[in-house]
Amino acid sequence: MHLDIVILTQKEYINPKKKDAYVQNVLNEDVIVQKALEAQGLKVKRISWDDPTFDWTITKYAIFRATWDYFHRFEAFSIWLEKVSKQTTLLNSEAIIRWNIDKHYLLDLQKNGVHIAETHFIEQGATETLQELHSKFNLQETVLKPCISGAARHTYKLNKSNLASHESIFAELIKTEAMMLQPFQYNIVKKGEISMMVFNGKFTHAILKTAKPGEFRVQDDFGGTIQIHEPTKAEIAFAENCTKACAEMPMYARVDIFEDNNGNIALSELELIEPELWFREYPEAAKVLAKAIKNKI
């Protein structure tokens, strides 16, 4: 049997015994995408990315969806990525995924005219302390996070009162990985962060993510909430320009934006690997994606 495309998930979501709201959302999203692809006349199958029995040469394309365990199994994922990219066409591509994994990609986008949050990259092996870095860059309240990260791993909100207590963890982290230090963005707490969904360069829908009271992280893991957002023309143009600033046009992208401390639209993150795309809030977006894939095939 030859396939046009496989939808990549992780094995926990293939035949889950326990279906809580979180798992049900994953399943619902995949059904929406699969039905949209099938409506285009494509042969589709949903599989776990690490399925050892699957022959990758029988499918033209593979699209990443809920492969959310890759971050915890990065070495295995990296080996798999290199191998499978030679056997089928990945959406998004191996090259753009590897570029997107490390937040240094923000510097490339900045060079191409995208406004990013003020960011100081602290490279692996640096010896300056947090205190020295805050003095050097004249920073008062900041967020520290790794350049390769997900789900707010090792993300800390810092100020003068807690710098000393974070020096030891920072000293350990910087030995093995690069870190980012950013001025705390007050509008993310006040107004939220907007996720803009862009397919093949065209905006479809947006979600506003709001942190719960007393929290600065907007992820639902930390109690954040979401709602449909009606973006401005400027926000749409900004999001579409972010995808045009990439070395190649991604088939799908989630462009996370916010209003920075100076009142300008800024890029928080560009998610090109396996982002939550909220098809369940706007199923029409899956049709846009499916048509773009059909045209590519």
How many beta strands in the DSSP annotation? 13
Task: Write down the overall mean pLDDT.
Answer: 93
CATH topology of the largest domain: D-amino Acid Aminotransferase, Chain A, domain 1
Distance between the termini: 17 Å
- The CATH superfamily name of the largest domain is ATP-grasp fold, B domain
CATH class of the largest domain: Alpha Beta
The proportion of residues in beta strands is: 15-25%
Give the proportion of residues in helices: 25-40%
What kind of oligomer do you see?
single chain
**N to C succession of SSEs:** EHEEHEHHEHEEHEHEEEHEEH
- Shape estimate: globular
The Cα radius of gyration reads 20 Å
State the secondary-structure class: alpha+beta
Biggest sheet overview = 5 strands, antiparallel
Question: SSE layout and pairings?
Answer:
Elements: E1 3-9, H1 21-39, E2 44-48, E3 59-66, H2 74-84, E4 89-91, H3 94-101, H4 105-111, E5 120-122, H5 130-136, E6 142-146, E7 156-158, H6 163-176, E8 179-183, H7 186-190, E9 193-199, E10 202-210, E11 225-228, H8 233-244, E12 252-259, E13 265-271, H9 284-296
Helix pairs in contact: 1-9
Notes on the structure:
The protein is of the alpha+beta class. The chain folds into three domains: 89 residues, Rossmann fold (3-Layer(aba) Sandwich); 117 residues, ATP-grasp fold, B domain (D-amino Acid Aminotransferase, Chain A, domain 1), CATH 3.30.470.20; 65 residues, Dna Ligase, domain 1. It contains nine helices and 13 strands. The strands form three sheets. The chain has a five-stranded antiparallel β-sheet. Strands 2-1-3-4 form a four-stranded parallel β-sheet, covered by helices on one side. Strand 1, helix 1 and strand 2 form a beta-alpha-beta unit. Helix 1 packs across helix 9. The longest helix is centred in the first third of the chain and has 19 residues. The chain starts with a strand and ends with a helix. The mean pLDDT is 93.
